Inverse folding.
């Protein structure tokens, strides 16, 4: 399928917070309460539209267990966006955010857009982390924030799409070097030619938006 | 020395014999001569790149298509024992789906482990006849077939992205049906050869001192279901070869296991072990999630105990996700001793408590033995897996340069797809029936644990030498 851009995402966070469920909800619009646990990495993809442009999201869903951390790190490379997920019903998953963030910042490119997600918002009665706490953490670390429910699909689309919008804006602003695939952005096949001529004369910091 | 030579051979020889020759030792079906013609023997590299790219992997895939064939005869070891009783079966070919059952001439005495055999997967995955002729398992065939196609599709990689549009990656049907191989209902029609194989096993198992070497030799090409539980116990080194000591050892080990439970299981709520237990606890419902058997509280508790005790006794790695999958084959095989009807729906709580406990303890010990040989798969940074994935990459780069280059071009790293293969010993990639069959072969090389890889466990020079080669570069 033709697309203007491809963004690579990575989903990270503690084990059992609902990373795979978020992905499944986003790509398949369904919720599977009991599913296989993720080993290593799994993939999903979906096309979205931003500003009238087709954007393909290629999403890497990672295993959350600590033991896999050294393997997971290699997946950060070349991601344009990250969804950092915690479970609002489990305080410890929120407490581990700092470690995750450090890891992400250290192993990804500095422009990676990180969306903080408090998942399982449907389980209000079991809530251990207030929404305000999530917001505060996000503000403090310069992240976008949303509470979602992979079960009811609440805010799931928004989480993925808002992250993409943020990346798209950064491209427009010329923050991302779209010709360097290490940034997790690929120009779609039919756009490649126009883009490369444009940026060829202006070096790395070229805004991709100019072409379309 | 011989090993050295072999390593050097694999290291140096750019042309891997298996990729060129249609290798089919005793484990391999005769190839369709039409395929043979089109094998890319010394095809010039530069020209017809496109055609070649399209052809070589597919030819290989087609040539191994019958890996999923179920009526295939593979065990040649017994041929010499009862030559007279084995009627030769006609040669047939098998590459059109659904493949007609290919058979080897029964009286062929070819070396079953000819060096350079390549379609290891084919050899290993082929199912024993009695497993599939069993009544009511007709759909097993369909399932297996589709699963094989799924594998091929994945490997073709051309359509990777389209394929990735949706989760889950695992097909659903095989999950449900994959277990049925251990069902004993629907008495399978035994061929003369099956019968003689079984007799041979029974004979070996009834000797006062089981000849483990012989047992290994025969198990390599698959263990008859009926004798699989005891054979697995013997091969893993859990059960002694000496018949007289068996009862006593079993009792001692089972008591020992429940001693651990008594002594340590309550500590799961302690500060030290709370995280370990919690992880296991949330993973168990996600283990074989679509098979009713594994959703039973009784079974989930068994798995929790086994994994928790194993984890605290192996602090170097602790519990790592994926190990939970390794209990399953043992549990199913040992449970099958007591189950007449379909295992996947069997109510384990209906068994006498003693029986339940024995299954649990035996599963624990056999899993422990298996893990002893591959613990570096699960220690910090998982060096065992990293090395095995490297070995796999090395192997593929020789066997199928095209697919290897394709991966490189598209920046597909082997770790991205092969990590789970190694981490879960293919438990996620194959129907359980196939995994169990594959593990027959693992167990053969398990004791002593020479080669600690899912690939390395498969006898056959190509794998062992590659693994030895890889372990030579082992850095930790």
């Amino acid at each position: 399928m033709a697309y203007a851009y491809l963004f690579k995402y990575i989903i990270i966070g503690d084990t059992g917070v609902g990373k795979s469920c978020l992905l499944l909800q986003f790509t398949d619009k369904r919720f599977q309460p009991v599913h296989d646990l993720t080993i290593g990495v799994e993939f999903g993809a979906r096309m979205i539209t931003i500003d009238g442009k087709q954007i393909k999201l290629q999403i890497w869903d990672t295993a959350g267990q600590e033991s896999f951390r050294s393997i997971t790190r290699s997946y950060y490379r070349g991601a344009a966006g990250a969804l950092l997920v915690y479970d609002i019903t489990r305080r410890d998953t929120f407490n581990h955010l700092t470690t995750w963030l450090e890891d992400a910042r250290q192993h990804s490119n500095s422009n990676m857009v990180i969306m903080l997600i408090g998942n399982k918002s449907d389980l209000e009665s079991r809530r251990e982390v207030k929404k305000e706490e999530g917001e505060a953490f996000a503000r403090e670390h310069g992240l976008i924030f949303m509470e979602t429910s992979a079960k009811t699909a609440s805010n799931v689309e928004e989480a993925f799409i808002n992250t993409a919008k943020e990346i798209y804006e950064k491209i427009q602003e010329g923050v991302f070097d779209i010709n360097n695939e290490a940034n997790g952005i690929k120009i779609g096949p039919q756009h490649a030619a126009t883009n490369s001529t444009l940026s060829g004369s202006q070096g790395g910091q070229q805004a991709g938006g100019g072409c379309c | 020395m011989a090993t050295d030579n072999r390593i050097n051979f694999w290291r140096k020889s750019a042309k891997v014999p298996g990729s060129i020759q249609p290798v089919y030792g005793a484990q391999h079906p005769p190839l369709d001569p039409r395929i043979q013609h089109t094998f890319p023997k010394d095809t010039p590299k530069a020209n017809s790149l496109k055609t070649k790219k399209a052809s070589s992997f597919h030819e290989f895939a087609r040539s191994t298509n019958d890996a999923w064939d179920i009526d295939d005869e593979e065990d040649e070891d017994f041929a010499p024992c009862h030559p007279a009783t084995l009627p030769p079966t006609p040669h047939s070919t098998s590459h059109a789906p659904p493949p007609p059952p290919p058979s080897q001439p029964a009286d062929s005495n070819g070396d079953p482990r000819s060096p350079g055999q390549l379609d290891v997967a084919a050899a290993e995955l082929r199912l024993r006849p009695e497993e599939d002729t069993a009544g009511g398992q007709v759909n097993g065939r369909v399932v297996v077939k589709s699963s094989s196609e799924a594998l091929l599709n994945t490997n073709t990689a051309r359509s990777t992205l389209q394929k990735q549009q949706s989760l889950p990656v695992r097909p659903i049907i095989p999950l449900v049906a994959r277990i049925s191989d251990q069902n004993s209902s629907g008495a399978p029609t035994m061929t003369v050869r099956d019968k003689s194989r079984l007799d041979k096993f029974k004979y070996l198992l009834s000797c006062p001192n089981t000849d483990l070497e012989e047992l290994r030799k025969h198990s390599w090409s698959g263990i008859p279901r009926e004798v699989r539980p005891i054979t697995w116990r013997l091969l893993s080194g859990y059960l002694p070869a000496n018949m007289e000591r068996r009862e006593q050892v079993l009792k001692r080990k089972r008591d020992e296991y429940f001693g651990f439970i008594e002594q340590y299981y309550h500590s799961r709520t302690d500060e030290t072990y709370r995280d370990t237990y919690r992880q296991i606890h949330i993973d168990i419902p996600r283990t074989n999630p679509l098979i009713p058997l594994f959703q039973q509280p009784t079974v989930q508790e068994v798995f929790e105990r086994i994994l928790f005790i194993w984890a605290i006794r192996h602090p170097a790695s602790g519990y790592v996700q994926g190990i939970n999958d390794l209990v399953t084959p043992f549990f199913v095989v040992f449970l099958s001793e007591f189950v007449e009807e379909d295992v996947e729906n069997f109510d384990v709580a209906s068994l006498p408590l003693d029986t339940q406990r024995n299954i649990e303890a035996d599963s624990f010990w056999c899993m422990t033995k298996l893990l002893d040989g591959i613990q570096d798969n699960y220690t910090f940074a998982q060096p065992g897996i990293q090395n095995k994935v490297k070995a796999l990459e090395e192997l593929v780069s020789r066997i199928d340069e095209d697919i290897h280059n394709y991966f490189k071009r598209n920046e597909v790293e082997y770790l991205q797809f092969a990590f789970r293969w190694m981490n879960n010993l293919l438990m996620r990639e194959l129907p359980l029936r196939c995994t169990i069959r594959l593990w027959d072969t693992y167990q053969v090389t398990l004791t002593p644990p020479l080669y600690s890889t899912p690939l390395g466990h498969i006898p056959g020079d190509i794998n062992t030498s590659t693994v030895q080669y890889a372990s030579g570069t082992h850095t930790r």
Observations:
- Chain B has 22 helices and no strands.
- Confidence is low (pLDDT under 50) at residues 9-55, 66-178, 180-187, 448-476 of chain B.
- The CA atoms of residues 316 and 379 of chain B lie 6 Å apart.
- The first helix of chain B runs from residue 2 to 12.
